[in-house]
Structure formats: structure tokens, C-alpha cells
Amino acid sequence: MEKVIGYRCSLCGKAYNLDEIQYTCPADGGNLDVLLDIDAIRLRTDPKTIMASRDASLWRYLPLLPVEDPQANGTPLRAAGWTPVFRPPYLSRTLGVNQLWVKDESRNPTASFKDRASAVVVARARQIKAEVVVTASTGNAGAALAGMAAAVGQKAVILAPRTAPPAKIAQLLVFGAEVILVDGTYDDAFDLTVQAAQEFGWYCRNTGYNPFTVEGKKTAALEIWEQVIAGDGLSKTGERLSVFVSVGDGNIISGIHKGFKDLIALGWLEQMPRLFGVQAEGSAAVANAYNSKSEVIVPVSANTLADSISVDLPRDGVRAVRAASETGGAYITVSDREILHAIAGLGKVGIFAEPAGATSYAGFLKALEAGFISSDNPTLVINTGSGLKDTRAAVQAVPEAKVIEPRLDALKRVIK
After folding, report:
1. What is the average pLDDT across 235-242?
2. What pTM was computed for the model?
């Protein structure tokens, strides 16, 4: 492809051709960054052309993606991305902040941010004529792969921990993927998928392993640039946006960072937003590294109700640390109790977030209280997934519904 130069290892800096390697750097295992031919892209497109697109999906950014058009019009594969950005006045008034946006990724076809990565990976799989795509997942990445693959008739195999929420497993099965539950952790499932891909010649989608996952996830940054920085005029006022995102493997925040870096390289974005990663206290390997001013990711024994970000060893940890350190952001950790409180808080403005999705909002509240950001800072919080993914957690976030006899006097006793 003329718009892609190849890969570069994020650790040692070694460059590779696009057809030379598929996953991580063979020298040191570092994650690979896809290198775009910035000059070639500038010659073929510009912001005005992008913004004039009537394609309400991530494929409006095809000129900036290292894949060919998947030619899947009329399918859910072409519906991923271009999620709404809300400005909830109730939250702004209650918190005393002037400019707050919430980007709601639950509006994706399989109801999570992971559709972005899976759509691009499936496009790449079709391009290289892969027969089977495999991934490890606690639910969302698997559902995204299963849904995107089903849309175009691509075979998918999903390995998930047997402890994954039943609603997420149901999605995998409904989409027709071959689902295998692993009696172990997400990390166990991850290692097994890598072995399976090598043994059977499958194409591995794993987060923090396949470089095309970041390319899908960077499209959220491209949308934030178009919808908020350019669309709401921050580029004119010169105000710097702060973005809060929950972090597990580290691939989402790495992808968002990559998207903004590509925009700056193109000359379409003048100022890098500050990126704030939020981790659950029980799964904070990336935050631990950041707070110790290190890029050495030490595994933890993850234990949090936010299953989507429950990871012992983040596979994209180094780039995730850099996303905050290189942008003037930070890492914040929140308790499961604070995550449940955030689910209820977002619910009050019509946004139903799963625990991992609400984690970013919990981190924003903590950052505001601690003075990491001020009430005048333009801020965007990303909800990465729907609360319908994990209703067991949702019911813990709110009081139980009252039960009454079917009489008006009974209703009067309990109504607010």
C-alpha cells in the first residue's frame, strides 16, 4: 500500500517492511508501530475532504488507515466508529466544570470500543486472505471480533476465561464464533492464542500484539479531533483538551496517542491533548510503572470487578506509559467502589456504562478533586462499553427497586 512505509519497533526502533513481520519485534518482543507515508497522504487528502465525508463510521478515515477498503457496505463492519460525543449539562453544573464531553463507545455495533480494532483487523485478515482469526478476550474484544467477522463471513475463534460475564459469552456465541472457555486468567488465554496461531497458521488479533489493533483504536482520536477540537472550536481558542480513558492492556490509550501523533505529523493538529490513563486499584500494572517513573511493567495479580481491564501483565504497557508521560497527562487509580459510583453517575445523564467504561469517569472525578485538572480545563471522558455487558455489576451500583402492592395508597407511600 502506497500510504504505508512499514513498521518500527517501539522499544529498539528497528524498522521492518509491512510484509516482513506480522506481530511483535523478533529482536526484543516490542510492540510495532505502523509507519504511514505522511507525505503521500498529504498529497491525496486534507482535513476539509475528510470532514466533508458522509460516511458515519471510522472508514471516513480510510486514507489514514493501513488497510484497503474492506468492501463490506451494508454490514456492521462498516458501522464501527463515529460514536456520539455528549455535553451533559447536569454533570457540568453538578461538578462545576465549564467544558465536559463524554464520548459514548457503547453505540458501536457490538456495544464497545473494541469494534474499532476488530473492524480494522478483519479488513487486514481479508486482505492477507487469512482463513481464521483468533483472539483472547474477557468478552468485549471477542464480541467485537465475532461480530465483525460474522458480518463478512470470516471464521473466528475466541478463547475467554470461564469467569467472563455470561452476557459477553452469549454475544460471542450468538455471532457464531467458535468459543472456548479457558479455566484460567485472561493472560493464560492470551498465551494460548499465540501458541494456537503459531501451530495452526491462524491470524491473531490479540490486543497489544497485533499492530493493526492500535490502528483501529486510533480512529477514536481522529474523531475527537474532528468532533471536539475542530468541531467545538478548541483549535481556534488554543485550549488544550484533556482525555480520560480506562486502561487494561494499554492498547486503547496507545491507539489514541498514535492517532493524535499521526494528526500532528500531518500538520492537521497543532497541540497534543493530555492523556490520562485510569486503572482499577486491583489491576494497576501500568499505573505502577508510570508512578515509579519506569517503563518496566511488573505483573500484578489482577482483582477488580471491571473485567475488561483486569489484566495481570499489560501487553502494551510501555506505549501506555508513554501516552501519559509524553503528553503531560498522568495515571490515576480508582477503587471498585468508586467505579460503581461512576456507573450510577453516568446513568443519571442517560449513559449506561459497564465497569471498565465507568472507570475513566471515576478517574476524572478523582483528578478533578486532586487538582490534576481544573474546572476550566476542556475535558473528554471515554465510556468504552455498554452496561448491558455486565448487568451483575450494574445492580451493585444502584439501590434495589421497591416492591409494593398494586394500590394507589401503596404507591403514594414510596413515591418521591
Report:
1. 86
2. 0.95
Set of cell numbers at residue 196: 494456537
> What's the CA gap between 7 and 200, in Å, rounded?
25
**Is 179 contained in some domain?**
no
Q: In Å, what is the CA distance from 311 to each residue of 71, 211, 249, 305, 342?
A: 35, 19, 6, 12, 21
- Residue 75: Cβ-neighbour burial (10 angstroms; 0-12, 13-18, 19+): middle
Residue 353 lies in a domain: yes
pLDDT surpasses 70 at 207: yes
* Residues linked to residue 280 through DSSP beta bridges, in sequence order: 334
Instruction: Look at residue 23 and tell me if it is in a domain.
Output: yes
Residues 35 and 103 occupy one common structural domain = no
Q: Which residue reads 486502561 in cell numbers?
A: 247
Is 7 exposed, middle or buried, given 0-12, 13-18 or 19+ CB atoms closer than 10 A? buried
Q: What pLDDT, on a 0 to 100 scale, did the predictor assign at position 1? A: 66
3-state secondary structure of 166: helix
Q: What is the mean pLDDT of the chain?
A: 95
Q: Are residues 4 and 95 in the same domain?
A: no
Regarding whether 84 and 28 lie in a shared domain, the answer is no
**pLDDT value at residue 229:** 95
Co-location of 318 and 238 in the same domain: yes
Q: Which residues contact 144 (CB under 8 A, 6 or more apart)?
A: 108, 110, 112, 114, 115, 117, 118, 119
Query: For residue range 20-51, what is the model confidence (pLDDT) as tens digits?
Result: 999 999 999 999 999 999 999 999 999 999 99
Sign of CA dihedral 344, 345, 346, 347: positive
Residues linked to residue 178 through DSSP beta bridges, in sequence order: 157
